[in-house]
Design brief:
The chain folds into two domains: 45 residues, no CATH class; 100 residues, no CATH class. It is an alpha/beta fold. The chain has eight helices and five strands, in the order E-H-E-H-E-H-H-E-H-E-H-H-H.
């Protein structure tokens, strides 16, 4: 609901929305009412393999979340990992974990408020995804399951060893 109305201001770009969440009909109505059917595409539910194919063709991935509590504020949505693994630069909310992708890895831009959305999207599009290639390669090598697996298994091992035996 924040990005769709802004698509009037973003030239030579389409917004593709995957999935069938609870607000899909509302977003489709908003798109229709704003006359943006030619710029906003709803591709519905698709298999992960197909989503990966589509994501790789994108010029930019967007993850703008609202601060609806600590679990949102400290989250790292899966789609950000998908974008990074596909080497797609991002525009993300300025929340701690997402901020690392933009600031530490330089894999895109962050927005502090929605007034910056169009400017940051245009900046990434103007830079071109090729200009983020090295940063995305580095982020993809660091932010992957293979690096997290051992830490998670170690954590589960610690928890298991502390659990009383019955």
């Amino acid at each position: 609901d924040k990005l769709i109305p802004e698509m009037h201001k973003i030239e030579n770009a389409e917004l593709w929305i995957a999935g069938d969440g609870p607000k899909k009909k509302e977003f489709q109505e908003l798109t229709k009412n704003l006359g943006l059917d030619n710029k906003v595409k709803f591709i519905g539910k698709i298999l992960p393999e197909k989503l990966r194919e589509i994501t790789q063709k994108a010029d930019l991935g967007v993850s703008i979340e609202e601060n609806n509590g600590l679990s949102y504020y400290f989250s790292m949505p899966n789609k950000i990992s998908d974008y990074i693994q596909a080497r797609i630069p991002v525009v993300v909310s300025d929340f701690p974990e997402m901020r690392k992708v933009a600031d530490h890895f330089k894999a895109g831009e962050k927005i502090r408020d929605y007034n910056e959305l169009v400017q940051k999207i245009q900046l990434v599009l103007n830079n071109g995804k090729h200009s983020y290639k090295d940063a995305l390669d580095h982020a993809a090598s660091q932010l992957c399951w293979e690096n997290e697996e051992n830490r998670l298994l170690e954590l589960f091992g610690k928890i298991k060893s502390r659990t009383p035996k019955s």
